[in-house]
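RECORD TYPE: protein structure
NAME: ascorbate ferrireductase (transmembrane)
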Amino acid sequence: MAGRGCNLECVKGDDAGKDVIEFMGPVKIILVDQPTNLYMRKRFAAAAIVLAHMMMGATSMTVFYYTLSYQKDTALFASHIVLGTAGLQLCMPSGILAVHKLAGSTAVLRLPHRPFEHFLFQFFAIICGILSALASYFFGNFKITVHSVTGIAVTLMAILNAIFGIIVYDYSGTRIDHTELGSVRKFCYKTHKFLGMLAFTVSSACFISGLLKETFVEWAPVVEIPYITGIFCVCYTFVVLYKPLREH
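PREDICTED:
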C-alpha cells in the first residue's frame, strides 16, 4: 500500500490545500488492498491510455507537418486539416479518456469534477469541427466523398450529442456515478454515451480516409507512413472506446 498511495509527506506545504482532515484520538483505520489481478489490469489500462495519447500525438503531428506543404494561396484550406485533426482526433478522444478513472490528466480531480474536463475538450472539438467543415466548404474544392461525408456526419453527431451531455451534466459537482439519475436522464446518458462512441468511430474513419488521399500519400517521404499512421489511429481508437463499449 505504501508504494501505491500517498503518505503525509506528499501533502506537506502548499500542496495540501484545505481538504486535509486530521483525526485526533483513538481511531480505527481499515486499509483494504485491492486484488493483485485487478491492480495488474489497472496498470496495463493506464499504460494503454498513455500509449494512446502518444499515438494521437504522433499521427496528429504527421498531419500537421503535411499541412506545411501547402502554399499561401491554399493556407485557408490547410486550416481545415489542422482544425479537423485537432478537434476530432485530439480533443474528442482526450475528452472521452478524461472521464476514465485511470486517466492521468484528471487523476488530481475528484470523480464528480472530471466531467468538466470532458465537457471542455468536447466543446473545443465541436468548435474545431464546425470551423473545419466551413473551411473545407468555402476555401477548398468541396466534393462528396467518404472523407467529406464522414466529416460532416461526425460534426453533426457531436453537436447532437452535446445536447444530451448538457442534460445529464452534474452541475452540482457531487454525483459519483449515474445510478442516481432518473429514468429520463439515464436514457439521455446512455444515448450520450452511444452517440459519443459512434461519433468517434466515424471520426477515425474520416481521419483514415484522409490519410489515404493521393495528396497525402504522395507527400509522405516513406510509402509506409500513411499506413502506419492509420494503424496508430485504429489502435488508439480501440483504447478510447474499449471501456465505454464494455460498460454500455
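COMMENT: Residues 1-5, 7-16 have pLDDT under 50 and may be disordered.
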